[in-house]
Amino acid sequence: MADTLRRLTNTASFSVLQDKLDSWHREYHIISCDQNLNKCCELIEITAKIQGQLFSILNLTAAEGGLYGGVDTLKMRLLPWLGTCFSLGRPSITNDTSLQLIQDSAEKDRRIRELSASHDSEVQKLDIELCSTRLQLDSLRAEVGDTLKPCSNLLRSAHEQLEIYRRRLDALSDYERQIRLLREEVSFLSAEKATLQERLVRSRSSSPTPRFCRTSTPRRSESPTRAQLTNSSRHARLVSRFNDLYATERLEAQTLLRRYIADLEMVQRIIFLAVVESFKAAKLAYFKYKLRVKKTLSPSHFGPESLDDAAVDHIVRNLEVYDIQASVNNVISAMNVSPRISFPLDVDLVLISALIRDTCRVAFAMQTLDPPLDVAFASDGELYSDTKYRQSYDSDFSAPLVVHHVWPALMEGDAVIVKGEAVTRRGALWTRSRSRSVSPMRSRSLSPTRSLVSL
Which residue ranges are recorded for the region named Disordered (predicted)? Predict the structure, then answer.
């Protein structure tokens, strides 16, 4: 019996019955008559199941009491209750009561239909309002799009105007450079005009000589050449270009070489040697070209300026005739046999020909200045000079000696025009010399494979 009672307790049948009864009470006036009857039948079925379980418990409990256990309770409570349930002779519901119930049910169904119709009407109104709101939202989006379109066009136009202004600024800077050059030209022409006017006045003021008899050559006054008049502007332009070589072309060449040579120090040595050899090749080419120009101009030269000044002026006017490719080839050949650098056999120094070409062009033009510009002499192990060099970021700033150079200093005679860059470290030269004595570095000139290929 205890197990049956435990199962009845665990199933909480009475709680389920009470919940369904409360739910039916709340929905009684909303649902239809058939739904109410179904709920009532469901409750009766649940009640019958519960009663069947209770009768089973009653039977088991009476059996546990023995033959006469619980007789008085059954007589006093169960039997009178059963007699009352089965003594009903006829139903208590009359025809009038049944008719009233049918009318109440019809009235409830009518109310339910009205509520349903009202609900459908409200839902339809809400759908209409929702559609109207969506249309208004689409209209607002279209208006916003139409409003933003001119703004986007205006913004695009503003960007285009800004780009145009930037281009104009770049063009303006070019115009300013051209204006400076034109001013120099004007000053040169003005000087020539003044010289010619002075010569004309002197020729008019002097006594006339016979038309076909000249006893002496007229004295000509010295006048500055174009090269002398533009010397200062060319000086500033070439110094600026030398700085650009350090800031731009040097870094590009270093990036190219680092793809094939991992040692940054060796890459810096190669670039430094390329600049130094470019100046040597350009100076030699300038010297030869100047001799050739002087030899060509000598038979027909009779101007007020000296033959040397005339040759320099001619070179300044015709810098494009400089055979720069020959100098580039000479630089690469000199670097291939230099013992100061070493690099893999599959690396060709043509990689940095752009740097060599630009440096040769600048160095050649620097020789036309008065006085000419040149790079300072440099050697590994020299005493560091703060007036000639800047120490690189990876230097030992307290070290007194230069390990290797990154960029040469630009000199005008004994004066430093642009500082170079050098690397200083303590004890590096001694360690490097010992390592070279034990295991010498191999340059391209010592490579038998390279020699056979060149032959």
Answer: 201-230
Q: Which residue has the tokens 């034990």?
A: 438
Q: Is 352 exposed, middle or buried (0-12, 13-18, 19+ CB in 10 A)?
A: buried
* Residue 389, CA distances (Å) to 233, 250, 418 in order: 25, 17, 9
Preceding omega of 218 cis (within 30 degrees of 0): no
Q: β-strand 410-412 against 415-418: which pairing, if any? A: antiparallel
The answer to whether the beta carbons of residues 356 and 329 sit under 8 Å apart is no
> Beta strand pairing status for 402-407 and 420-424?
antiparallel
Which DSSP helix (H) or strand (E) runs through 88?
none
* N-term to C-term CA, the chain: 118
- What does the pLDDT read at residue 434? 44
Note the pLDDT tens digit of each residue in 360-381.
999 999 999 999 999 999 998 8
Most confident of 158-162, 233-237, 433-437: 233-237
Q: Could you state, in order of their start, the residue ranges of all structural domains in the chain?
A: 1-64, 230-424
Among candidates 273, 278, 257, 402, which has minimal Cα distance to 343?
Answer: 257
Report how far residue 395's alpha carbon sits from residue 428's, in angstroms, rounded to the nearest whole number.
Answer: 11
* 8 A C-beta contact, residue 243 and residue 359: no
